[in-house]
């Protein structure tokens, strides 16, 4: 997926300024596709040149005009074409998993603080997702098609975080058990 597609999806959901897009990336889309503010602005300029977005200049009191971007017909067609392309399963690089395996060759207890740090981060993210679900989708039975698709992606994120937390709890239990073992065969 190119950054262009992630931006177009966001603009099809709701037009916005570069700053608003960057905030959306920080808040939601960024969990699936990350981009810096500079990358977003650079891609927006290229998409404008390619005719995938248009810019409306909105006057603001005491500040420079705000540029509000919207997807065009060609931008919508680009998303439709991209949607028909096959997606290969992602290859996951998971440094923590490799470290967990490496703990067999050292003191497993040394890895406990790092796993606890990861667990805290995933727990906080799960809480953000759950808060967002309650705030943005209070009545899932009355969602339009766009909202249903946004909600199903959010539910996937929630389930992923729950699965990750369960796995990290298992890792911590294993590390604690090994830390109590009187003899480490690698010593």
Automatic annotation (TrEMBL):
Domain Transcription regulator PadR N-terminal as annotated: residue spans: 7-80
Gene3D superfamilies: 6.10.140.190, Winged helix-like DNA-binding domain superfamily/Winged helix DNA-binding domain (1.10.10.10)
Pfam families: PadR, Vir_act_alpha_C
Listed SUPFAM superfamilies: Winged helix' DNA-binding domain (SSF46785)
Top-rank taxon, per record: Bacteria
Domain Transcription regulator PadR C-terminal span(s) in chain numbering: 92-175
Protein name per UniProt: PadR family transcriptional regulator
Organism lineage: Bacteria, Bacillati, Actinomycetota, Actinomycetes, Kitasatosporales
């Amino acid at each position: 997926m190119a950054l262009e597609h992630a931006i177009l999806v966001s603009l099809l959901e709701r037009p916005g300024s570069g700053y608003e897009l960057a905030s959306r990336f920080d808040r939601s889309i960024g969990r699936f596709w990350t981009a810096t503010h500079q990358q977003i602005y650079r891609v927006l300029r290229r998409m404008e040149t390619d005719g995938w977005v248009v810019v409306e200049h909105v006057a603001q009191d005491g500040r420079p005009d705000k540029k509000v971007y919207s997807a065009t017909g060609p931008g919508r067609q680009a998303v439709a074409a991209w949607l028909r392309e096959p997606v290969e399963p992602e290859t996951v690089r998971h440094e923590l998993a490799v470290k967990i395996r490496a703990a067999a060759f050292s003191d497993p207890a040394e890895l406990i603080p790092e796993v606890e740090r990861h667990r805290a981060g995933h727990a906080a993210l799960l809480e953000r997702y759950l808060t967002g679900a309650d705030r943005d989708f209070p009545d899932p039975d009355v969602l339009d098609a766009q909202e249903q698709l946004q909600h199903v992606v959010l539910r996937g994120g929630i389930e992923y975080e729950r699965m990750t937390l369960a796995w990290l709890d298992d890792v911590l239990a294993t590390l604690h058990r090994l830390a109590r073992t009187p003899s480490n065969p690698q010593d």
